[in-house]
Specification:
Helix content: 25-40%
Number of strands: 5
CATH superfamily of the domain at 1-65 and 105-134: 6-pyruvoyl tetrahydropterin synthase/QueD
Strand content: 25-35%
Order of helices and strands: EHEHEHHEE
Largest sheet: 5 strands, mixed
CATH topology of the domain at 1-65 and 105-134: Tetrahydropterin Synthase, Chain A
Oligomer: single chain
CATH class of the domain at 1-65 and 105-134: Alpha Beta
Distance between the termini: 12 Å
Bound molecules: zinc ion
Radius of gyration: 17 Å
């Protein structure tokens, strides 16, 4: 089993708000991030796939397909977007880095053909990142 990671960057804006919280709760829990005018981040995404090395090509994954899938399924959808308003899942889901990682996983998983998705890592800043290994990370399939 071998692991391969491709990186990409995207910029997006968001704000944090839960309509089920009172204004006071939203302010207390989300602080400045509750400002509905939003604020931006330069995110770094790392997508790791795993599989066996193909003995004929020496590759674990079709690199072109991985790059194109990340481009079409993730970057086209998220880059330079106001996540709360322009990305369907974040009309109801709070666009935290945690939920971004889960959303990116769900966007990529059904589209990757040869390699198996292993991890989605999203950096919100250089000092803060989230890892998601899928819902069934317990079984190694
Ligand atoms: Zn933020």
């Amino acid at each position: 089993m071998i692991y391969l990671t491709r990186k990409a960057e995207f910029s997006a804006s968001h704000y944090y708000h839960n309509p089920n919280f009172t204004p006071e709760e939203n302010h207390r829990i989300f602080g400045k991030c509750n400002n509905p005018n939003g604020h931006g981040h330069n995110y770094t995404l790392e997508v790791t796939v795993k599989g066996e090395v193909d003995s004929r090509s020496g590759f674990v994954v079709d690199l072109k397909q991985l790059k194109e899938t990340m481009h079409f399924e993730v970057l086209d959808a998220l880059d330079h977007r106001f996540l709360n308003k322009e990305v369907p899942e974040f009309r109801t889901l709070i666009p935290t880095t945690e939920n971004l990682a889960i959303s990116i996983w769900q966007r990529l998983k059904p589209k990757l053909k040869t390699a198996q998705l292993h991890r989605v890592r999203v950096y919100e800043t250089a000092d803060l990142f989230v890892d998601f290994y899928g819902e069934d990370s317990q079984d190694s399939e």
